[in-house]
Amino acid sequence: xxxxxxNRSLISRIAKGKxxxxxxxxxxxxxxxxxxxxxxxxSRLAATLSILVLNPSPYGSSISTAFHQVLxxxxxxxxxxxxxxxxxxxxxxxxDTTPISDADLKDFLDEQEFxxxxxxxxxxxDKFYGCKQDDRWYVKGSVMxxxxxxxxxxxxxxxxEMSSIDIIIVASAGHLVDGLYCQQTYxxxxxxxxxxxRNIPVLNVNSNEDLGMIxxxxxxxxxxxxxxxxxxxxxxxxxxxVAQLTHESSxxxxxxxxxxxLQRSPKLRQYFxxxxxxxxxxxxxxxxxxxxxxxxxxxxxxxxxxFSFIETRTIxxxxxxxxxxxxxxxxxAKIDSVYSIDKDLPRNxxxxxxxxxxxxxxxxxxxxxxSWSGGDFETYNILGNVLEQLNADHPEESPKLVQQIIDSx
Length: 409
What we know:
Elements: H1 20-27, H2 37-40, E1 50-54, H3 62-72, E2 76-82, E3 106-109, E4 112-115, H4 116-120, E5 129-133, E6 136-139, H5 143-158, E7 167-170, H6 180-185, H7 187-197, E8 202-206, H8 226-248, H9 266-276, E9 288-295, E10 308-311, E11 320-327, E12 332-339, E13 364-371, H10 384-390, H11 400-408
Helix pairs in contact: 3-8, 5-7, 8-10
């Protein structure tokens, strides 16, 4: 599989020596989860949640390790990943139920080859799904196939006694999912919409990462570099958002069925019964998911501030749409993304900007509520107080482009 060069992040070029205080916290002890309590051990984290993390990146990737370790410090976390790297626009639903073969023990990223037997301890003949570390599962299938397998088989058959999950987090696949075009093509959003059609509260959490962060690596490996620190700080802020949603929850109690399997088994019936008795609070309105993107770059590490949140929309000030250039002389067609949208198309009437209006230099986290039926969720304000509380230390921060737009009107 080839991963596009455009997915490389500025994060991997962070200068040495920045954010030294955070680095010391991460390195002692050498695990992501060690840094969580530096900013999150406050009253809002009183509730322990059951979180299902669905990873578009492969089993053992540094991204999947970061999400699992940071979140599991305060919550029950179950992580599920496809065994191999897949294309970010691969939306097919496939499961290969044959045992692990010699070919399955190899994975590829550009010209690099990865031996999954050495990295993950897999062997020829192992089952097509499994768990090489507590609550971290692999499935030999596509991203969507893996997500379905997690919901309809893994949870009811391997977590039968659990009273269902509270929220799904679709972890970063190493790229942003911002704007109308990306939302329509990337598998991350497809997984989010799968959760939404089952009425499960869901966050799609995205960030640009170096290619090395999305390849397989040992499950317990820790990389104490700047890119890892950057990602860990971001995940801490995501956990703070989940904690604030829990604190502010006003959408009733648990009211969804995680599994929709037609299979009939005693374990499935027991899981359904436990889920029926779940009275934990709902964290988001029915059918709503949050598409979240970290708009930051290397210079954001120069400050000790946490990333602030800003509510955004898919359609607003700026939107990327695809365009094509064809060079007849060279016989080359090039696909571009341009900031363009017809001025006569109807848009939302509020002052909230689009995801594309926030620049990577703004050091902000954009949050877009999306309806299960497609399009932005704009029925009423669900994030105002939540984000206000999270941004309490730096309420004045706003995107540079926002200020330019305000000044020009």
